[in-house]
Amino acid sequence: MTYPKELWEDTVLEHAEYPFQLFQNRCASAKTGDCILYLHWHEHFEFLVMQTGSAVIHVDSRPYVVQPGDIILIPAGSLHVGYSLGDGDVNYDCIVLNASLFNDWLSDPVHAQYVAPYLEGRFQFPVKPADQDETCIPYYSLLDEIIQEFSAKAPAYQLVVKSKLHLFFTLMSRSFMPQQFAEQGERAYFPNRERFKQLIRQIESRYADKVTVEQAAKEVSLNPYYFCKLFKRLTGRTFVEYVNILRMKEAKRLLKESNDSITEIAARVGCENPNYFTRIYKKYMGMTPSQTRKRDMIE
User: Fold this and answer.
1) What is the 3-state secondary structure (H, E, C) of 138-200?
2) Which phi and psi (to 5°) does residue 9 adopt?
3) pLDDT tier at 69 (50, 70, 90 boundaries)?
4) Tell me, what's the pLDDT at 233?
5) Per-residue CA distances from 234 to 97, 117, 187, 231 (Å)
6) What is the set of domains in the chain, with CATH numbers?
7) First vs last C-alpha separation in the chain
8) Residue 43 to residues 74, 223, 280: CA-CA distances in angstroms?
9) CB of 82 within 8 A of CB of 40?
């Protein structure tokens, strides 16, 4: 199902390397019927943790009543909106993440069987999991721990959050994945997976090479349209985004570890136009190349 572009939210995730973000929503003195979550959709997963008050959250037109302690799992691409069910404060936290967070697990066969089907949209967790299986409720504490990590921002909190999110997906998969899928494996559901993994390894080792979508599609024997669709399902990113992020990660490393000029670094990662390189770098890294280098010198 597709929704109008006007309702699409370009949710900004702070770091390209760790595409997740915590949004803490505080609606003080809400009245019954007040909109506490405006109508929108985005390309990320969203885990809503209810803290205070009560509300009804509509996900793809289906209503779900939430009370403190309840969890709502909103699939990527789903239209959602929320309204207060009483007078008083309504507080909830949203953990938003992009499927590309787990791209370094793509070659892991257990991840491919149990977690990837949810990241790729082939299966979906129940929007309100506890209504279908109460045995998943103990897993909710992982989301509370993730919120605490976001708030404290202790050293390496990004790795802790990533690990706990992957654990949450894995445990939820254990509860909800249909048994017949576990038995027959994942290959029938994603054509050319091995070729895609080989292509991704090639891109990662030769990120500076110019490779068009048409050339990449030919590598996996697909037409460009279907290739783009499957590539995004597998990685959570478009082909161009994936290549750009690889290049900017390498550029960030070079800015910190080499004395090369920004123009030289741009060329080394496949960007011949320094101005274009600066725009793309800022888009994915949140600062300009010069700011990255200055920050590293200060630190």
Assistant:
1) HHHHHHHHHHHHHHHCCCCHHHHHHHHHHHHHHHHHHHHCCHHHHHHCCHHHCCCHHHHHHHH
2) -105, 125
3) very high
4) 74
5) 15, 9, 13, 5
6) 5-99 (2.60.120.10), 102-184 (no CATH), 194-299 (1.10.10.60)
7) 47
8) 11, 23, 20
9) no
